[in-house]
Write a structure and sequence with these properties.
Distance between the termini: 73 Å
Order of helices and strands: EEHEEEHEEHH
Shape: elongated
Strand order of the largest sheet: 2-3-4-5-6
Radius of gyration: 26 Å
Largest sheet: 5 strands, mixed
Mean pLDDT: 84
Structural class: alpha+beta
Number of domains: 1
Strand content: 35-45%
Helix content: 10-25%
Low-confidence stretches: none
Number of helices: 4
Length: 173
C-alpha cells in the first residue's frame, strides 16, 4: 500500500518512495499487466489546512501485444498533482477554482492517512495507449505469418470449399 500520513507531522514537505511490481496490479484483479517495474515518488506538503501531494510514476508495464500477443514493454512517465481535503465535496466551493491545476481529493475528517494506491493504479493504466502493438518489424514473425497468410483467396483463385463460389458471376449477364 502506498500510504501517506496526513496527520501527526508538522508543516513542511516530506518525501516518499515506493517500488511496485506485478503484485500491485494483481491486488486490483488486473490480468492485463503481465509484469510491472514502477517507481513511485511523492512529495507531500502540509501547510495549515492545505495538503498537497506531487507524485511521479516512472518505469515500465508489460502487456500483451494486440497484434502478436507477445510481451510488450510500455514505458510509463506520469505526474500527478493532488490537493487532499478533509470533509465532503462542495461543488459550489470548488466550482470557481483557485487557478491551481491540482486534482482535488476529499477524504473523511476521521482519516489520518491517505492511500495513494488507487490513484497510482488509475494513472498508470491511463498512461497505456488504447492500441498496444510493437513497432513495425518487432512483432513475432511466426504469428504475423499466420495472420498475413498467403492462403487468403484472391479473386482469381476462389477457394474450392467456398459455398458462395457458385454465386460468382450470377449477375454479370
Amino acid at each position: 500500500m502506498l500510504i501517506i500520513p496526513l496527520n501527526g507531522w508538522k508543516a513542511g514537505k516530506q518525501q516518499f518512495s515506493w517500488h511496485v511490481g506485478k503484485e500491485f496490479f494483481e491486488r486490483f484483479d488486473n490480468s492485463e499487466i503481465l509484469d510491472a517495474d514502477l517507481v513511485i515518488e511523492a512529495v507531500a506538503e502540509k501547510s495549515g489546512d492545505y495538503n498537497g501531494i506531487d507524485c511521479s510514476i516512472r518505469g515500465a508495464l508489460t502487456v500483451a501485444c494486440d497484434r502478436c500477443l507477445e510481451d510488450l514493454v510500455m514505458p510509463v512517465d506520469e505526474s500527478i498533482r493532488l490537493s487532499v481535503k478533509f470533509g465532503r465535496e462542495d461543488a459550489s466551493r470548488d466550482a470557481a477554482g483557485d487557478g491551481d491545476e491540482r486534482e482535488v481529493v476529499y477524504i473523511s475528517p476521521d482519516d489520518t492517512d491517505f492511500d495513494l494506491s488507487q490513484t497510482v493504479y488509475d494513472y498508470a493504466m491511463l498512461a497505456l495507449p488504447l492500441q498496444r502493438v510493437h513497432k513495425d518489424g518487432e512483432c513475432n514473425p511466426e504469428v504475423l505469418r499466420h495472420l498475413c497468410s498467403e492462403s487468403v483467396p484472391t479473386e482469381e483463385e476462389p477457394v474450392q470449399d467456398n459455398p458462395f463460389a457458385a454465386l460468382k458471376g450470377l449477375f454479370d449477364k
